[in-house]
C-alpha cells in the first residue's frame, strides 16, 4: 500500500484527479469491461498518491448459447463495471511542482554529503564518530545548498522592507520566505556554524531581516509595510507618531539602513525648510550619522550597509565604548533646547534611548518576542554567545510580551514559538518533535545532518538504535518516512533509493520491495530504470526477477523476440527451455507445407535463443534441423551455379552428417522421425534437380 504524501499533498497533479478532472471536486468514474462469471464484487485499492479506488463489478450471467450478459440493478450499467477514484485529503491541498523540484535538488546534495561521510569513516578506520575538525564545514556547505534550493535570499541585513516610495505588494508576494527556510537557517546558526557563534547578535539580525514576516501575523515587517504605504502621501512624516515608532522599531532590531533612510525623509531636509529648521536638521543628521557609524561585531558588511565591522573583540569593545559615549554626549547636549519641533525632539530622544539600550524603549519598539530578543542582544548584550544564557533571555522576552508559551491561543498566533525556543535552548529532542509535528517528512530527512553536525549529544539520541522502533534509529526512521513519500508517485519513486541506501537496518529490504512492486511489465523504459537502480546498488537478485517478469510478459503477449531477449538477461534457462519447447510445439503436426513455413518464420527466434542452452531438447532439435536445411540450400545454390562436383559432394556429405546428428537418441522427438525423413528425401530430390 502506498502512503499519503506531504500531509495530504502530493508532488505532481494527476491527470485524473478529482479537482483537475471535474473542477468541483467530484469523484472520477471510469467504465471497465470484464468477464468474471461470479457474484458481484466490490474492490478497494490505492491508486497513485492519495487516490483511493472503489471498483464495482456486476455479475456475469451466461445463457444457453454461452453468451455473456451483465446482470445489474441499473439499466445504464448493463454492460460494464465501474471504478470510482476518490482523492483523499483537503480540497485546497493541491500538488505543487515546486515540491518535486525541491525533492530532486535536495537529493543530490544529500547523496554527496553521505558519500563524504562514508569516505571520512573509512579514512578514520571505521569509527562511527564524525566529529573531525572539518566535518561541520562539510555540513555547512550542504546546509547552504539546501537553503538556496528552498528559495532566494531576502537581501542584505536590514532590507526587510523596500522604502523606495512605490507599492511592493507584488514583489513581497513573489519573494515571501517560507517557514521551512526560516527554521532551516536558524538551525544552521545554532547547530552547524562554529564561526558564527562569535557574532551571534549580528547573525540573528540577518535572520530576522529575512524571516520576520513568517514569525507571526503581527510583526515589525507588517508594521513597516503599513508605514510605507502612508509615507507616499506625507510631506512632513515627522508630525506622525507612526513615523517615529517605525524608525525606532527598525533601529531596535538592527535594520540600520531602513532607520537611516527614514530619518532622511524628515521634512527638514526639504529645500524650502532647511533654512528655517537648521538646528532641527542638524540634530536629525547627527543621529543618522551616529547610526551609520554604529560598531558591529561581525567579519564584514555588505557594500553600502551602515555601521563599522569589527572582527576582533577587543577592538570592537573599544569602538563600542567610544561610540556609546558619543551617543550619551549627544543625549545630554544643549542643542535640544534650541529645537522648536517638539515631535522631532521626542522622536530623536527615543532613538538615542534605543541606541543606549533602554529596556523600556526596546520593549515598546518591538512587537514579537524574537524581535525583543534580537534588540536585547544587539544593544544590551552585543558580546553574547550561544552558551551564555541565551535560552533564559528568550524565555524572559516571551514573558515580557505577555505570552507564557503554554496556552492554546499563543500556539495558534505563533505556531513556531515552541520550536524556536527549543532551537535557542539546544533542546534537540523538542526540535525533532516540533519539526515532525509542523512540517512534512522532507525537512526531518534532511535536517538530521544539521542537528548532528557538532553535537555529540544530538548524535547519541538521533543515531541510537531503539527497540521500540524495530531496532532502527530516529535518523533512519525519518529517512524511511520520506522515502515512502517519494514512493507514492511514479515521478519521484526513483529518488527513494538515494535515501533507502543510507538506512543500514531496513533500507535495502524496503528498496527491494519498492523495485519489485514497480509495474515493469507495462513499460520497458520503466524496467530499464529499475535495472539501473539494481546495478547502482548491487541488487542482482532483484534485477534477475525484473528481467524474468518482463520477459514472461512479452512472451505471453505475443512479443516473442522481446520475451526471449529479456529472459536471456535473466539467465533463466528453465523458462528459455520452455520457450524452445513451445516453439517446437508450433511445428509438431508435421514438417511439410504450412508447418515448414512456420519453422522458417521461427528461425530468427531460434538464432536469438542461441545454442548454449543444453537443457532443452526442443532447442537442440531446432538448431540442428536449421543446420541441415541450410546445408541442403547451399547444395541447391551450388548446382545452379554449376560449381565443381567435388564441392557439391563435400557439401552433401556435410548435410548428411547434420541429418545423422538429428537421428541421434534424445535429439529428435520420435513423432518427428517419419516427417523428418520425408522432408529430407523431398529436399534432396529438389537439390538434385532434373537429370
UniProtKB/TrEMBL annotation:
One of its GO terms (cellular component) is nuclear membrane. It holds the Pfam family Nucleopor_Nup85. Its main location: nucleus. Keywords: Membrane, mRNA transport, Nuclear pore complex, Nucleus, Protein transport, Translocation, Transport. It is found in: Nucleus, Nuclear pore complex. InterPro entries: Nucleoporin_Nup85. GO terms for biological process: mRNA transport; protein transport. Functions as a component of the nuclear pore complex (NPC). Belongs to the nucleoporin Nup85 family. Component of the nuclear pore complex (NPC). This is Nuclear pore complex protein Nup85. It comes from Physcomitrium patens. The gene is LOC112292977.
